[in-house]
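for ur thesis appendix - Thioredoxin domain-containing protein. copy paste whatever u need, i formatted it the way the template wanted (i think)
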Amino acid sequence: MSLTSNVFPHPMAPRWWWIYYTIKTAQDFCKAEEQPQPVVLMFSADFNEACKVMKKPFRDMALAKKKQAIFCLVDVDNKLKDIVEKYRVEALPTFVLIKNGKEQKRAVGAKMDELRIIEGNI
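the 3d part is after this line
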C-alpha cells in the first residue's frame, strides 16, 4: 500500500478524508520521502504553543493543496530523533517542502508569510 492511499481515504468512513498524514515511524517517513509528488512536513510537538497555533494554517494549506502534495505531521516527541537531526530542526514548528527527495524550502516558527512561500512553491 502506498503512502498516498494511507494519507487521503479515512479508514472509518469512505466519505471522510485525512487532511494530513502523521509520521509515527521511520518507515512512514521513508515512504513520504520516496513519493513522486511534493511532500510538506510540519515538525511539531504537543507542548509547543506556536505549533498549536500553526496547525490550523497547516491544515488549511493541506486542504487547499491536497491534490498537488502530501502533507505530513512529524511529532518530535515520537522517538524520531534521526529524522529531526537529518532535517536540522532546531525550533518548532518547522515546515519543510521536499521535492524529488530533496529539501526545497523551509519555514521556521509561527510565521504565516514563510508558510505562504512554501505553499506557493508546491
